[in-house]
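New to this. Help decode both lines:
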Amino acid sequence: MEWKILADALFPGGHDIVEHEQFLNGTARVDGQTVNVIGTTGHAPIGVEIALAQAKAVLATVRSHPGRPIVLLVDTQGQRLRHRDEMLGINSYMAHLGKCIDLARLQGHRIIGLVYDQALSGGFVTSGMMADACYALPEATIRVMGLPAMARITKVPEEKLVELARSNPVFAPGPENYLRMGGLQAIWEGDLAAHLADAIANAPREDQRSALGLLRGGRKATQPVIEAIVGGSNVPAA
């Protein structure tokens, strides 16, 4: 979905979001309150510039608007694969962005992520997956790593990974599989403005992803392992 169409649907009360070199920033009205909107568009590759721009926008919100909700609009192809960015330490820039989002959460900001087009690899990990709750549109494309790349790195034949993806959401892309794993709180259809208002009002105070993954059958071992470690008991078999 084109970001301007999305913004009009999410914020019927008005917004002043602007785009600059695939970086989105501005404010909007949601259910009578002002929220800050930060995001990307055009399948943006996350290089050092966009990572810093997003981090700066988050910190500006924390500094100037204590407690104001933050909405993260996600459309990214992941980190930019350029020698320059690697030499500058793009991993550190993206980690900085993730830390800034976590700082905002610790300072009382409710943070909602929405994957409205594409969310790949580190560009998703340090944005939407850092939110209190992340949602997606049905037509969104989500994956941390494509199966061909996964095959090259793990040395597992791609045909085997394709077979595993049919029954195991960990190996499969798409919002439905991330919903099963707990990475998404829900997939939004219908009244997007109402969905967003409800998400902000009821943003979870604790990370629910592992518990949701267990409940939905997409990640069966994560929550029991967490509980075993916290409780000091033996770790159950997967």
